[in-house]
Every structure is written in C-alpha cells, then in structure tokens.
Input
Amino acid sequence: MCRPEPEPEPAADSEGPAEPRVITITTREAATLIASGSGITRQPPGPQVVISMPFIVYTNPAVRYQTTTILGTPIEVEFTPTSYTWNWGDGTTTTTTDPGAPYPNQTVTHHYQHTATAVTTTLTTTWTTRYRPQGDTTWRPIDGTITTTETSTPYDLVRIITYLTDDAEEAQGH
Output
C-alpha cells in the first residue's frame, strides 16, 4: 500500500542509526481506505416524491480520518470532501461545493418534471487527501483526488391532483 523509497545502505564503518524510511502514499492507495461516501439524505424520505414540490437533498460534509500501518508505521490519512455531483435519475445532474441542508434551510434541490417509478439519486463526492505518520505534526498532500459514489433507495415520482369539494363542509354539518 505504499512506495517506500530505498533505504540508504549504511557504510561498513558507520556506527550511527540507519536513515529513517521515507513513505509516499499514492491516491490509488488512499482510495482503498475510504469505505463509504458522504451519505445521501433526501426530503421527503418516503417512497414518493411529488413532482410539483422541491426535492431536497443533503450530505455529510465532515472530514474523515482513517489510520493504516505502512512498513510498521501508523499513518493517519485525512479525506476532505470538495465537491458533490448529484445525478437526479432523470438525465440531469448538479455539481456543487455545497453539501446542502435540510428543510427549511435547503440549498440543494431539484424539481422533477414527469412522473416515473423506481427513480434513484446518485451522489458522487470528490475528496482531497493528505497523510502524516503517527507522531508527526506535518500533513503531506496526496496528489490527485478520490471519488466515492452512492445511490439512494428507489422512489416514485408522483403528481398530486387536488379537487375542491364540499365534503368537508357537509361532514361538519354546514
């Protein structure tokens, strides 16, 4: 999971300790550490979404940390989300640096135009990464970015039609 740089061979007559190993972590290696994305929360959460209402989504923007051991040294890896691409399942996408927020402060919404069944929303989160060996205070960047992709549970897009009737008034005796 790492590319150790070659250790210098100690000279035959040297008495000092060997030079420390230099550890380099690649984006590909860091990607194996992040097991899940930032999560999808949608409002409304049920099995149906009304097409005339805003469909609200948001995700968890928290920085993630993972620890692994490389060449006997514990290494802490930090994953920071930098952008979010929402695929709405209707052929459209939205890319933003905003993770969204729940109602009533929603910032990432979508308006569906047509009814459909078993629609899903897919979120692709882009992460930057950096690492540091245990006990070291200096973070080292890892070149490139990592993406995670996750999909919501299916939901149906429905239209609600309201009718004005006098049934309620009649039920109240008016």
Remarks:
- Confidence is low (pLDDT under 50) at residues 1-14.
- The domain at 3-164 is CATH 2.60.40.10 (Immunoglobulin-like).
- The first strand starts at residue 3 and ends at 4.
